[in-house]
Amino acid sequence: MKLRERLIAAIAEGGPMSVADYMTACLHDPGGGYYATRPSLGADGDFITAPHVSQMFGELLGLWAADVWDRLGCPPRVRLVELGPGDGTMMTDVLRAAEAAPGFAAAGEVWLVEASAPLRASQETALAGTQVRWAKSLAAVPTDAPLIVLANEFLDCLPIDQAVFTAEGWMERRVGVDAGGRLGFSFLRRAAGEVAGGFCVPRDGGGVPPLGAMLEWSDDLVAFGQTVGDLIARAGGGALFIDYGRDAPGYGDTLQALRGHRKEGPLAHPGEADLTAHVDFPAFLAAARQSGALAAPIRSQGDFLRALGVETRAAALASARPDRAEVIGRQLARLIALDQMGALFKAACVHSPGLIPPGFAAAQ
Ligand code: SAH
What is the pTM of this model? Predict the structure, then answer.
């Protein structure tokens, strides 16, 4: 049975399901989830990410990782971990750039955390010839050496829940089945203390949200923030997260499906589209801090990449290949321009006390 039919049958039996359960099924169901069965990244696939826009992105993150290693005092062993490495493009660029710091290349033990079997196979091909280890979760990576963690567009895959504020109070948005037997949103009355785990509800002026306000929260994101904070506090090191998301609490429906580079309704093709939500960075970093790690102030991707020298790197690439200068200029703009990825995407860093992560101001 197709995933859609199985979801409809499960809802007929157990009632409407949470948005988080729906997201998890759409992404990871072994028989029909997007990442489990048919992930397709890049120009010919469903969506494009920064490493596919330009090699400069992964290269700068490789130099960032080498600089973190240096600031940690050049430990003889460090674990370089990528979360959700997609088709392996970014790690290829990271490792090539990291060769500029020979001590780091020798000390770094590469770990990839990947849930998707087809993408793991792509990573094996892309990184053939490099010694790489795979783990199913970050918590499975040993912590007897410092961790340097990189994650681009990973947190947006963690499932969220949603609630809308109505005249009758908060209603949780759930996935049900409409009169025509199709998937449709349904709404369940909730007490204020039952949404967003009872905390982190953004307040608007006097505390009453505007009618129609959509609140999103993610128990998985908060739990993962605690895990990252705990591991970084114990092992030492730094973890860099780049994703589209908020740098302050706010309202809005950000559940989004992408198929063949087109946005579509999140219920239109379950398991056949990438399904994501904006990352609530303040909630994620608060959870990491609770576990004993520090968190740098959130920056926009544009500001972060500029601080790492992306414009200088683009100029060097363009002067080496004048015939490609225009393309490189367009790639640079796509990564940092305010109306492209520069402002919507944010960079956040969880790190151990004593480390000042490159590209960020001092910890809060
Ligand atoms: N970082 C890549 C790919 C982003 S797509 C890039 O920027 O191009 C999201 C990636 O996260 C995929 O590799 C997907 O399989 C992986 N992923 C999603 N949810 C996951 C989970 N819960 N555990 C491990 N990997 C996950």
Answer: 0.96
